[in-house]
Design the sequence.
């Protein structure tokens, strides 16, 4: 039997709800603990330069409390690379970061932005952090990631997730081909972005897929399956005390 695929849960979206009110709830650190109880093999969090969701306080507490793997996502900005080096997550996941984007839009360009990426990889490795590069599922990008010394690549599954009928097989094939090149070049194969309860299975079945990172669909589902209980708890308080 093939090795089980590791499930990384991205808790950024919990922090997004908290930051909408700049309050203390919902806490991504508590969400991470519950995700562990549910069977997550890793917790992913993205410290953005603009701190729109995850804060440095979250990084500190997640690093102290998460008992499974930690996967810290960030751009190549010196300040954030330094925080990652001091925090020492299991994985540092390098992504492109644009202030105007709603979420990470495309993969890193490992072919043209080599100086900055290489410097970040070397610094992270010097601090004992394994490095993964978030790239589009293109063999040339995979080859560039290997040359830069990445330990893993996370293939961007966003285009697959958004593909319309008739395009899905082609997008899946791109991931499979890039995935094969990844393991042939000695790197670990991860994938993520836009995966949900209906589209995840074909990606999970790609040979040698080691890890999937999923956030939005799991946090969305958590809201839906938790809503009935949350409302009944409030109802009980009103019924008992008013
Ligand atoms: N991987 C990367 C690099 C991401 O930026 C994100 C989104 O934060 C994810 C995985 C998870 O994507 P989603 O929230 O769509 O599941």
Sequence:
């Amino acid at each position: 039997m093939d090795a089980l695929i590791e499930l990384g849960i991205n808790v950024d979206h919990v922090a997004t709800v908290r930051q909408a009110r700049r309050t203390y709830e919902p806490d991504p650190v508590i969400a991470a603990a519950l995700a562990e109880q549910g069977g997550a093999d890793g917790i992913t969090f993205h410290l953005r330069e603009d701190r729109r969701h995850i804060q440095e306080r979250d990084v500190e507490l997640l690093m102290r409390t998460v008992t499974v793997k930690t996967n810290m996502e960030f751009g190549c900005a010196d300040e954030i690379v330094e925080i990652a080096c001091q925090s020492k997550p299991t994985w540092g996941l390098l992504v492109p970061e644009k202030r105007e984007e709603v979420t990470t839009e495309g993969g890193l360009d490992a072919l043209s932005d080599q100086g900055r990426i290489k410097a970040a990889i070397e610094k992270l490795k010097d601090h004992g952090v394994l490095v993964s590069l978030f790239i589009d599922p293109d063999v040339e990008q995979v080859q560039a990631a290997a040359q830069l010394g990445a330990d893993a690549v996370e293939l961007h599954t966003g285009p697959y997730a958004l593909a319309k009928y008739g395009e899905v097989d082609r997008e899946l094939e791109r991931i499979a081909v890039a995935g094969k090149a990844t393991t042939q070049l000695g790197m670990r194969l991860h994938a993520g972005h836009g995966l949900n309860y209906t589209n995840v299975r074909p990606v999970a079945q790609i040979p040698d897929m080691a890890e999937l990172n999923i956030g939005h669909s799991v946090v969305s589902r958590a809201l839906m399956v938790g809503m009935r209980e949350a409302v009944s708890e409030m109802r009980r308080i009103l019924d008992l005390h008013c």
